Amino acid sequence: MFDMGETLVRDDRYRGRWADRLGVPRHTLAALVGAMVAGNRDNSDALRLVRPGTGIDAEYRAREAAGRGEVIEEQDLHADVRPTLAGLRERGPRVVVAGSQTVRAGVLPRALGLPADVVATSDEGGVSHPSPAFFARLPDVLGAAPEETVYVGDHPADDVFPAKRAGLRVAHLRRDAWGHLRAADPDVVAAADRRIDTLEQLVPLLTRGCPGTRTLPGERNRGVRHLTPGPVSVGRTRLIG
């Protein structure tokens, strides 16, 4: 299972549109978001620093009304997304994209024709990510047991830890600020069944002939393991809301 924000979809244009909406240079908002990440704070706090008292939900509605709502186009996908999803589907695993997004954010990637069996968002399911309820409902979406599911994401608090608590197998992706900043965190290393730098590294790992989870030769000290094939899911919250 794959998350959308930063796991599959780049957030730079998304952040840029927020900066334009708030009337600040794009690099200013990007720097503030980086500061929030370094301080282990919610990314949306960057918006409140720029405009104190900002109501995120109200701003979403105002952006939609102004014709500046959510947009996900081909250029917003990371370069490894299509070859990875296609490669996994060719080898058999069920591929699911599920993240903390609005109903509209689920419609947009479907319109791109991503090679996935299911594209679902938290709003469509009436639950929030990374709540326990979100992860508890994943087996129904996937049609598989938690231990047969590999959850791929970059955010420790939103992806790695809650997925692990729900009994899923976890692949931590070193991508975006959270993925890189916390990559060497002992808790993240301990929770992740696999740590990857690109999505394409999943394809040779998730094969039908893989007998189970085992350490790769020569990498016993890095916690790098093969993963048993099964449904693959990717998920994470968008950068700002």
Structure, explained:
The structure is a single chain. This protein has 241 residues and is mainly α. The protein has helices at 12-22, 26-38, 45-50, 56-65, 81-91, 103-111, 122-125, 132-142, 156-165, 176-181, 186-191, 202-205; strands spanning 96-99, 118-121, 150-153, 169-173, 194-196, 232-234. Helices cover 42% and strands 10% of the residues. A two-stranded parallel sheet has the order 1-2. Strands 3-6 form a two-stranded parallel sheet. A two-stranded parallel ribbon has the order 4-5. α6 (103-111) links the parallel β1 and β2. α1 crosses α2. Residues 208-241 have low confidence and may be disordered.
For this entry, give a set of tags.
mainly alpha, single chain, disordered C terminus, 241 residues, two-stranded parallel ribbon, 42% helix
